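Morning. Coffee machine broken again, so started the prediction first thing and wrote up yesterday's gels while waiting. Chain of 391 residues, entered below exactly as on the submission form.
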Amino acid sequence: MPISAKVKHLMSSGSWIRGMFEQGLELYAKYGAENVCDFTLGNPEMDPPEPFVRKLRELANNPVPAMHLYMPNAGYAWAREKVAAALAADTGVPVEGRHVIMTTGAACAMNIGLKALLDPGDEVMVVAPYFVEYLFYVDNHGGAVRLLESDEHFLPKLDAIEQAIGPKTKAIILNSPNNPTGVVYPRSLLEAIAQLLDQAAKRFGRTIYVLSDEPYRKIYYDEKPVSALTVFRNCIFATSHSKDLALAGERIGVAAVHPEADDSDDIVAAMTFAIRTLGFVNAPSLMQHAVADCQNVSVPIDEYRRKRDLLVDGLVDSGYECVKPGGAFYVFPKTPIPDDVAFVRLLLQERILGVPGKGFGRPGHFRLAYCTRREVIERALPGFRRVMSKC
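Came back before lunch.
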């Protein structure tokens, strides 16, 4: 066999998101892209905001000397300082440049955090529904996933967390605003989770860390999301500019370790070591220059709000059950039949592409990414209604 048995198994159980996206390419070829309603990928259709474009143009016309050379693995010191200052101002946590690592997206931030923390067999709690790559990230570094169910509003269940914690528990991954549900976790829930983790850490004599994946923290519609940095002392924060600056293809993000975390200096050093040994080497130089001064900039959120309301109201009017998203740009409705894969196939007959909830650890639902053009949503709504009428 040319590839490892393990990788072959992981590929066979891999991402439904990419699978549906590739199925969409077949529909594009057959019917034309203008006749397909694709809600598969969280791939923003907006252009980056003008301050970023202006900065990029400035760098292209007046390049900084030696701008494209290697730099320290953690990134430019001045860029880390600017990111830390913005993060500290936003959260009230005294983050400094030495606590920050510039990364090739949030995926890199999560992987180097897990690499720094995990010994073989250490357990990481993941709440379903989840971003499917979390399972692969934990496996990458010898960890074992403990899957936890959420409640009917897709919020983590305290009793499930309490029951899952054991002597091998090393971390929990939290994601708010959430992918795939768009749900925002309230401060009271995060504080209750923090209390559980502190009690368990004393009971088992080991620190339990929070890895907080927050690439959607600037995309919210009602109450501003609470960053885990403000609640959990033993916290590794991960974010990306893929969503707030619409730079998904540029792979630029940030990792930060809470300044008061246990062994914080060692964790930062280990993560910096991992960014090199895992092959990331350093975050893209040009993007570090471009985003350092855009930390308080984002794409227009009202645009996403209007799309959310159009899609969610249309789905509810057609009979679908939805938890209205408080952030991000996903909605995770309940399927009208138990088999979510079969339901997504019914949508394909209407040339609508969604992703079955099975791919996120929550069967009986489906995910729609509404970071697409408004006309795609408008064109899809009659198709959603027709499929509901068949169920």
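The first strand starts at residue 37 and ends at 38. Going to sketch it on the whiteboard this afternoon.
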